[in-house]
Design a protein that fits this description.
Number of domains: 1
CATH class: Alpha Beta
Strand content: 25-35%
Strand order of the largest sheet: 2-3-4-1-5-8-7-6
Distance between the termini: 15 Å
Number of helices: 3
Shape: globular
Oligomer: single chain
Structural class: alpha+beta
Length: 128
């Protein structure tokens, strides 16, 4: 594990959230659709990632329905995602993704189950 990469914030309306977060941070985000995760992301240079569902089948839709807008996940940057996943699996840590999947910005990601982390959805991200 290297360091904190970003904090993901679930929002029901990306346009409304962008107005607020642009004013708060004074930054312009990179906006991207991540079809595999069924989300539209807005990633700010300071490390805030807004997540809005692209469909009702999105995990973000389910999150918003259950918990409302707010912090969805914390992401740690890793140097070798395959090695980290193997290490965690060998240690008996419950994973959502046992293999990396494509994430925003072209990185590879995997999620650790919140039941393994005391209730925090932890994303691991490997950037090229």
């Amino acid at each position: 594990m290297r360091h904190l990469d970003h904090v993901g914030v679930a929002v029901p309306d990306l346009d409304a959230a962008l107005k607020l977060w642009k004013a708060l941070l004074g930054e312009e985000p990179v906006i991207e659709d991540v079809e595999g995760q069924k989300v539209r992301t807005a990633t700010f240079p300071s490390g805030i990632e807004l997540l809005a569902p692209l469909s009702a089948a999105s995990p973000i839709s389910r999150f918003l329905d259950k918990r409302g807008a707010g912090i969805h996940h914390v992401t740690l940057r890793v140097q070798d995602l395959d090695a980290e996943l193997k290490r965690l699996k060998d240690a008996g840590v419950r994973l959502i993704n046992e293999e990396p999947v494509p994430g925003a910005g072209g990185c590879r990601i995997a999620f650790v189950h919140p039941k393994a982390t005391g209730g925090v959805l932890l994303e691991l991200a490997e950037h090229e």
